[in-house]
Amino acid sequence: MAAGRACASLCGLALAAAALTVTAAGAEQPPRRVDAESMFTAALHELSERDLKARYLQCSQAALQGQLGSQEIALCSLGYEVLLRRVFGGDYLALFAWSRSEGGRGAAVAGDAATAAR
Question: Average pLDDT of 69-75?
C-alpha cells in the first residue's frame, strides 16, 4: 500500500512517458517509441522543488520499509538525481543534511498519519 502511494505520481509520469510514440509528419515508417527514461526525467524537471523533495521523502520512506520493487527503485533514483542536481547543485552532503533534518520530520509525520489511519 505505501509503495503504491510512494510511487503513484512517479509511476504515473513514467507510464505516460512510456506510452508516447512519435511519428514524423508524412513518414511511412512505423511509430518509434520515445525513450521513457528521458521523458520521465523531463517530467521530473517540471516539478517544483517542494514536489521533488516530497517525492524523495516518499521514496525514502518506502525504501526503508522494503516496499519498493526494482521499477519503483529506478524511478525513485531518477527523482533523486534531479533533486540532487537541481535543488542541491550536485552537493550530496547538502542533500544528506537536509534529508536527515527534514526527512526525519517527514517520516515522523507519515508514520503518525499511517498510525492514525489504522
Answer: 89
- The pTM of this model reads 0.61
* Cα gap 65→3, rounded to integer Å: 9
**Distance (Å, whole) CA 57 – CA 84:** 13
Query: What's the pLDDT tens digit per position in 33-59?
Result: 567 778 888 888 889 999 999 999 999
Residue 43 to residue 58: CA distance in whole angstroms: 18
Q: What spatial distance separates the first Cα and last Cα of the chain, rounded to whole Å? A: 13
How far is CA 115 from each of CA 88, 102, 104, 110, 111, rounded to the nearest angstrom? Answer: 32, 20, 16, 9, 6
Q: How far apart are CA 87 and CA 71, in angstroms?
A: 24
